[in-house]
Amino acid sequence: TDGWKAVTPADEVEEDDVVCVTACGRRLAVFHLEDGEYVVTDDRCTHGEASLADGYLDGDTIECPRHQGVFHVPTGKAMSPPVVDALPVYPTRIEDGQVWVQLP
Ligand code: FES
Q1: Distances (CA, A) of 104 to 39, 89, 98
Q2: Which of 14, 36, 44, 88 lies most in the core, judged by the most C-beta atoms within 10 Å?
């Protein structure tokens, strides 16, 4: 296949919120940003074992609940220590009411 998977109904992720889903054995964070954009990233923090879906979403940044590292959600860029490595961000589209993600 082309690697696209439907991971959740789009309307199950409220605007300005993030949920954790599992697809193909991966834990993903599905963000619905306040500007309406959907972004899908790994849910696991690149610094340690923590679920970013349990973190603090502030506009387009997410703060890790474990050591308060911050990532820029649309790009995955690490913005604030202790996080150094970028968060993987996956190609995402909305179709037929579902959030579709292209996994490598
Ligand atoms: Fe996320 Fe340490 S586990 S900042």
Answers
A1: 16, 11, 19
A2: 44
Domains in the chain (CATH in brackets) are 4-102 (2.102.10.10)
pLDDT tens digits, 22-73:
998 999 999 999 999 999 999 999 999 999 999 999 999 999 999 999 999 9
Q: ipTM exceeding 0.85?
A: yes
How many angstroms separate the Cα of 54 from the Cα of each of 22, 31, 43, 98?
15, 12, 9, 22
Matching residue, tokens 């961000």: 89
